Structure formats: structure tokens, C-alpha cells
Amino acid sequence: MIKYKRILLKLSGESLAGDQKYGIEENRLIDYAEQIAEIIKMGVQVGIVIGGGNIFRGLSGAAKGFDRVKGDQMGMLATVINSLALNSALKNKGVKSRVFTSIRMEPIGEFYSKEKACEAVRKSEVVIISGGTGNPYFTTDTASALRGIEIEAEIMLKGTRIDGIYTADPEKFPDATRFEKISFDEIYRRNLRIMDLTATTLCKENNLPILVFDMDKKGNLKKVVNGENIGTIVHN
User: Fold this and answer.
1) pLDDT tens digits for range 98-128
2) What are the C-alpha distances in Å from 11 to residues 16, 47, 107, 140?
3) Which of 34, 51, 142, 183 could crosslink 138 through cysteines, CB 3.0-4.6 Å?
């Protein structure tokens, strides 16, 4: 039996770039689509939010002289590009999916509403929600927390290139150790930035657990929804 019936999957834009470090790597896109198709066939209901850092990051743009609001708006558009690409890849795998946007831009995507999104996931359609929250100064992590709460997901799955949460950055500190479970309070106490504080607080206050895992290892998404002990779970 599957452990999680309805999930919000947060995908990193940087991971979508694969080894090329920029843009969308075709093999990585296909791999993600295959993993998502696999859990749809198992009966899992899926909402997805994708970052846009493989194309443009608002904060990086601000550091280079862009107006912060305009930079964040460019980042929102980058998430729409990634969402359209994933939507196309899923449809090529025979999976029904719909792109919603947090800002009106029909016919590129449907304007997001909780009611439409929940109706779609109940019909086993993958709901891809793009454009962040639609507001500057909010990250796609915050958008993921918000949308996960709205679609009544049981858990937010944060797919990254690292296999969980560590005491320190494992890419910089090889002796860092991984947590199997950690509370939101300890995340704050240790100042572990798994997401921005707004996103973390939204999840804590609305009792939405987070599971951080390595999405780049094929088969891991299926293992997670089956309840296998991989990654790190953050809980109240």
C-alpha cells in the first residue's frame, strides 16, 4: 500500500538543468516525467511546483542591478517555462496534466484556484502550479508550502540533488551527518536553511510535514510514496 495518497512535489529548477547547469536538460526532464508517471499509475494524486533557478533567479538578478520586483517577476516567468516543459514531457508519457499560473496568462495556462486544482488532482490529473505565489519577495519554496496546504496534500516532497538534511552542507563538509527525522523546532534552533523561513513556518503552522530526498536518483520518488526510509522528514 502507498503511504501518501496526495502529495505536493517541489522540484528544483537547478536540478532540471542537469549537468549542463543552465536551461533544461532533456534526459533529466524525461527522467522526472517517468518517475511522476510511475506514481500516478499507483494511484497517487500529485501537485507540483517547480523553481526557475535554471533560467533566472530574482535574487541573483537583484545582485546584478535588476530591480528586485522585476527580477522576481522574471523568475516567475522562468517557472512557467519549466512547468510547460514538464507538462509536455508528462503528456508524452500518457499522463494527464494541467498547468496553472498564479498570474493570468491564458492560453499559456489556467488561472490558479484551489477548487480547480483539487478537482483536477481528484481526477488523477497532475496539477503543475507555476508563477510562484504571484508576488515578489516570495520564493517558490513558499509557493510550494502554500499550494501544498491549499490542495490538502498529506506531505510536501522536496526533491533535490542531496539525499536529505545534514548537520552541515555535505558538499562542503564530508563529515556532516544526515538526519532521518528532525522537528521544525530543531530546524530553527540549528538554523538549517532547508527552505526560507516563511515556507518553513507555513508548513509548521499548518502541520504539513516535509520530506527532503534525492530526486535525481531514479526510483526514489516511488520509494518515498511507498514509505521507504530514505531522505529526511521534518515534522511538528
Assistant:
1) 999 999 999 999 999 999 999 999 999 999 9
2) 8, 11, 24, 9
3) 142
